[in-house]
Amino acid sequence: MDLMNYQAKAPFTQKHLLTLQDWSEDEIYQCLSHALKLKAMQKSGQKQSCLSGKTLAMIFAKSSTRTRVSFEVGTSQLGGSALFLSTADIQLGRGEPISDTAQVLSRMVDGIMIRTFKQSDLEALAKYGSIPIINGLTDEFHPCQVLADLMTIYEKKGMLKGLKLAFVGDGNNMAHSLMLGCSKLGLDVAIASPDGYKPNPVYTAWAVANAEKHGSKVTICTDPLEACKDADVLYTDVWASMGQEGEAEVRKKAFAGYQINADCLAVAKKDCIFLHCLPAHRGEEVTAEVIDGAHSVIFDEAENRLHAQKGVMALLMGNGGF
Ligand code: CP
Ligand code: NVA
Q1: By the number of CB atoms within 10 A of the CB, which of 56, 106, 204, 308 ranks highest?
Q2: For residue 139, which atom of ligand 2 is closest to its CA?
Q3: Is 144 in the pocket of ligand 2 (CB under 6 A)?
Q4: Could you give phi then psi for residue 48, rounded to 5 degrees?
Q5: How many CA atoms lie within 13 A of 44 on its CB side?
Q6: Percentages helix, strand, coil for the chain, rounded to the nearest 5?
């Protein structure tokens, strides 16, 4: 499939990006196609201006390197500007209601990217505000990361449907969004997690239903090597996510053995690629040998956060143009 020249089957009608489950396969492809085009334009020095005169508010209740920089740089490359708002500084962090925050920001800016804990806070922003809301990570989902991941897989493999992605580790926000994104585009996805840390069964059921519709498979298992067998893409994430720092020691024990290492590479496809959303802990969820080795494409993946999110903003805030 030539994703760069993808022909939309229907107009893009989404107002927000709260979770990939809300977007159709066609809408995800439209976004990836925009991202690939915007990347090519940026590399060849072509100016883009679809966010000219527009402002993105970026609310952060958790730390970030990639999400903050890529949204800020992406907005500026599209001709707009971005405001960094830490909840440590704005009134939201002191208890001002989400509903009031949504209505005030809707009078001043053209979109909100938010990284926070509860998915319900994003739903409230979308309900009470009148501007696009973009999920920059919650405890439940990380859709922007998965758009960048799918873009990277496409660039490296030249295809998406029919590939197998294996995720080893915590059934967390990354596992959830990978399951949803992959199942919507017809990639097989296998998640290996210890008991007690498996993905939320509600989101697993969504992914299974997506996979049935798109001719792929979702496997939830306990054995990392079972998940990695014949995989085209190996993926992992930290054992303790932001907000779980107090559980770090317990989790270190629970996740011992849930590591992408040479044994995983040995059972995966010979030409498999390794992805990680980053930040990574070498020696825990992945060995240095793998993350810094020949199969790893983590920095291409990190760069694609920029291009994928420019695609998201062009569609949601820039009327779909460039
Ligand atoms: N992968 C990711 O979202 O990175 P940051 O936490 O640095 O934004
Ligand atoms: N699961 C990690 C992802 C970081 C990008 C976290 O939520 O901290």
Answers
A1: 308
A2: 7
A3: no
A4: -125, 145
A5: 6
A6: 45, 15, 40
